[in-house]
Amino acid sequence: MAQLQIKRVREDRDPDDGARILVDKLWPRGVSKDHAALNHWFKNLAPTDGLRKWFGHDPQKFEEFASRYRKELDQDASGEVAELEHVLRDVDAATLLYDAKDVEHNNAVVLLGWLRDHRSGF
């Protein structure tokens, strides 16, 4: 299984990034495809539009946001959790990329924690 980390998509790529996977629903404004250097974009792994808009990157709502988002991941309505796991089985390292300015309160933080809690080997 892959070693996982998260970082902002606007940061420069690094050889240690491994597979670069964008986990936001929307393409990051002003970021070129060359700079992003993505291997995969799992936009349906992002929180639903309703949850994303409700959260609005408000740190005071983060705990409730994380709880609701984890429930969405548990349901895996899009099948992208399973697809991500398939990708991660074939790489040594992967970086989950996000665009939020807040490095502590965002969907990638929740997704990384969820993967570590629910899947072995991450």
Give me the secondary-structure category. alpha/beta
Main sheet attributes: strand count, strand direction, barrel closure = 4 strands, parallel
pLDDT averaged over residues: 94
Task: Count up the domains.
Answer: 1
Report what the structure shows:
By secondary structure, the chain is α/β, with parallel strands linked by helices. It has one domain. It contains five helices and four strands, in the order E-E-H-E-H-H-H-E-H. A four-stranded parallel beta sheet has the order 1-4-2-3, covered by helices on one side. Strand 2, helix 1 and strand 3 form a beta-alpha-beta unit. Helix 2 runs antiparallel to helix 3 and helix 3 crosses helix 5. The protein is globular. The termini are close together. The model has no long low-confidence stretch (mean pLDDT 94).
Give short descriptive properties of this protein.
globular, 122 residues, DUF488 domain-containing protein, alpha/beta, 5 helices, YeaO-like, four-stranded parallel sheet, 39% helix
Give a concise summary.
The chain is of the alpha/beta class and 122 residues long.
What's the SSE blueprint?
Elements (H helix, E strand, L loop, with lengths): L2 E6 L10 E4 L10 H4 L3 E2 L7 H7 L6 H14 L4 H10 L3 E6 L8 H12 L4
Parallel strand pairs: 1-4, 2-3, 2-4
